[in-house]
Amino acid sequence: MSHGYATGRLNLPFVGIATFGKYPYVENWDAIDADVCILGAPFDFGTQWRAGARFGPRGIREASTLFAFGHAGAYDHEDDVTYLEDARIVDIGDADIVHTDTMASHAAIELGVRKILAAGALPVVLGGDHSINIPCINAFSDHGPVHVVQIDAHLDFVDERHGVRYGHGNPMRRASEKDYVTGLSQFGIRNVSSTAKEGYDDARSRGSDILSVRQIRALGVEAVAARVPTEVDIYLTIDIDGFDPSIAPGTGTPSHGGFLYYEVLDLIAILAKRQKIVGIDLVEVAPDYDPTGSTSILAAQLLLNIIGRILHAKE
Fold first, then answer.
1. Are 174 and 146 in contact (CB under 8 A)?
2. CATH code for 20-314?
3. By C-alpha distance, which of 243, 166, 178 is closest to 207?
4. 82-121 pLDDT per residue, tens
5. pTM of the entire structure?
């Protein structure tokens, strides 16, 4: 008996293998044929307090299945656009991580991003702690100029502490040293900070535009977007602790007074319409600190919406 069921599979979110958005898995990094490529970077030995972001890629992928109901695309009635329709997205799994070996792990992440760029796809890297941004930026050495837009509670502009140069407090400083990084927009920086005044002075002297959440709310997203240089490609690095811990508690160093969802999405949507976003990493999701899964859902929802807007702008 048919029981009146439709043919084919319903494929509910909790069914199947949890690739990102249930998009196809590509094991061979030399056979990538897609517009967007998801890479996991489950490395968290760069943390200075609570570890656990090594489980970020797994948590974000599982959460992303919520938005994979099997029907094509995602209709947004506010924009009157169906995003992600016929999107060519693949998940290439994770970079290999060698426990306690930062340089070997970072090299594996850099290799993955270089393979994605070689295939002409947009790399979207799931961290991991914020140190994984260092190999991601390294991989753009042949790309030409990029401007880094950072969403974060923390400046991450430490040069060196006790010999540490590649931890999660260092990535924006390492990026600023690249001759192909033209500047940084550091948005969401706030509160009791791990960075002393000298760090802010140093960052600004090297071309950083630093705004807190309160300053951004006072200016409005249109005005903030207008401060980002238009004549250069954007690399986007999103630390989940840029968001308020009321909606993103699952992170190692939560900081109150953070962004809400639409503040960040609306800002990035303006940038995606206006110019090329050529790389993305989203870091510091540590699912074990959030038994509700809300932090991972926020990360997955934000990434899918950003990817949708980038692909739509291309059309």
1. no
2. 3.40.800.10
3. 178
4. 999 999 999 999 999 999 999 999 999 999 999 999 999 9
5. 0.97
